[in-house]
Amino acid sequence: MTRVYPDDVAGPYEAPPRSFTDREGRDIEVRRFEPSAMEPLVEMYVEFHPEDRAQGIPPKGEQSVREWLDSIVDDEGVNVVAWHGDDAVGHATLVPEFRDHPDEEVTEHELAIFVIREYQEAGIGSELIEALLGAGREGGVENVWLTVERWNRAAVGLYEKVGFEPSDTGSFELEMAARLR
Amino acid sequence: MRLHSSEEETSRRPGTLLPPGGVAAGMNVLLGIGGSEDSLRALERTIERALEAGDDLTVAVLDNPDSEPTQTEVADRARERLDAAGLDAEVRKLEGHPGSALVDLAESEGFDRIALGGGETSPLGKIQLGSIAEFVLLNASVSVTLVR
Lengths: 181, 148
Description:
Chain A is an alpha+beta fold. Chain A is about 25% helix and about 30% strand.
């Protein structure tokens, strides 16, 4: 599969940490993932509202959530977490895409972002995704892609705002791509 | 149109009870496959289900020019799997646009149901449905099963 990436660089955005007050007046911090964030993240995803799942993720049930998180929170990927005090309220991730040859240079990362229901529509998503793209750029990530359900206008709008452009319109999900470097 | 959940499919794995009337109500099923991983999984699951429920199964091998392995290789593999399972099922190669060829065959020959692979997963674990599945779901007048 070949994806078309925009000519222009998205951002560039500042890498985390970031602190801000969201539109509900809550003090939010965005930091890179570290191992101590695992349990709060598991808690966030186990409680995740079923309506906010996207194409089968996060999976259902604690065991599946742990397995899924273990597979994406490793040294190869980029992960940032939004915190309200000690609670993880959002998470964004870049997962490298390995081609048929594992030793081939990795040049594409898939992006996903999740914010729990009570913290949506407060500006956290924008800060979280900008911090993720900043961290990715700092880590040498060049090409980022994602899929989003076409009807999810809020998400599509966010992705467009930070520099994603549609790259494939052939199916139910809209595929979008951005260049970081 | 009705979509079966994956739970419903897995509840019919060997060793579990069949749904009421499962054996008597065997259906005339048309399975569409290409060379992708989800197609091969769909083939295995649909064979299992056909054996349990007494479905009459036809396997249609779709024409996807981008696909590795080739249509002939996929057809040979399907034939092998069916023979190994002892299932008497026809394997047909369909030419042309995969989605419309499958829907057309199902409707012109009175199949009860179309089955096809339920999508690939992205590196992140997202389910991704291809254009063939989308065409079939939006166009078929018979029930469609996406096999997970």
